[in-house]
What we know:
Blueprint: H1 2-21, E1 24-37, E2 42-55, E3 60-66, E4 71-72, H2 75-85, E5 93-100, E6 112-124, E7 127-140, E8 143-153, E9 172-183
Antiparallel strand pairs: 1-2, 1-9, 2-3, 2-4, 3-5, 5-6, 6-7, 7-8, 8-9
Amino acid sequence: MKHKKELMLALLLMLAGSAFSQGKYFTRAGQISFTSKGVLETIRAENKTVTCVLDAQSGLLQFSVIMRGFEFKKALMQEHFNENYVESDKFPNADFKGQITSTPLPDLTNDGRYPVKVKGKMTIHGITQDVTVDGTITVKQQGVQAQSTFNILLSDYKVKIPSLVKNNLSNTVNIAVVCSLQPLQ
């Protein structure tokens, strides 16, 4: 009798967990890259360890990126990025928490390409700003892909550019996000 109750409880917990995760999509291998086109050179970096969660029912969307995960072509650029610009020891993550504001919400049960507008709050370098961006959600048999390209101003996030390298960096940074999402199990 005791084993029967334990088995029934385990089944109920599994069903509740399955119902909870329906409509939620997730990855820990999303990609964010950024480009800064200065007068003297263009700086690029990429991070392939972005966590993203999308709730298809509510349109809630959240990204989190470890700042030390950005990789540069030159090791010295990576060191300066982490120590002097974004201060990764002090501000280890950048986050975005937002909502798809397009109506209707994309139907993630049907293949297609859905343009979306997302509004939320982005935190970089300990500073949070309101952000509204356009993006695309593509649904295929392989899963769901969320992507967007947008610009931010470093000055909005109090990232200081030393006068010595002011010609190497632009205050405007182009950010590209691509996340291939799978149903949350």
